[in-house]
Amino acid sequence: MSATTQTAGPGTSSLASSAAFGRFAIGFSLAAPALYVICELANLPLFSYHPATGRIDLGLAPPVKGEGPVMYWYGWTASTLIGAAVFGLLATVLPQGVIRKIPLSLIWILPIAAVPILAYALRSFWRF
After folding, report:
1. Residue 97 — very low, low, confident or very high, per pLDDT cuts 50/70/90?
2. How high is the mean pLDDT of the chain?
3. Domain boundary assignment for the chain
4. What is the 3-state secondary structure (H, E, C) of 51-116?
């Protein structure tokens, strides 16, 4: 048996190797942790989910007595994904020289820096 591998020829290109997708990925991954922290600290969910009743309200909705807690995490995540996608799309129109000046280490540093901020912001849930 012989294994054959297929490689992309000179006339084909993939999305992952395109310069525009690279700029989108960098813009998205830099914006997402910062936007999530902002959405959580400012309490800006796109929607609020009431799991006991299955109800979804747009924006920030307070808990209703007798219906249990409200889940905002899904709304924060949706807000983050939309905002980061906008930043990623804006990054695709930037010249490649501007993107090259951004240190790629920020892609690791920003999420790691967001963890202690979020842990502190959610400290009331850590108390017993």
Report:
1. confident
2. 87
3. 16-121
4. CCCCEEEECCCCCCCCCCCCECHHHHHHHHHHHHHHHHHHHHCCCHHHHHCCCCCHHHHHHHHHHH
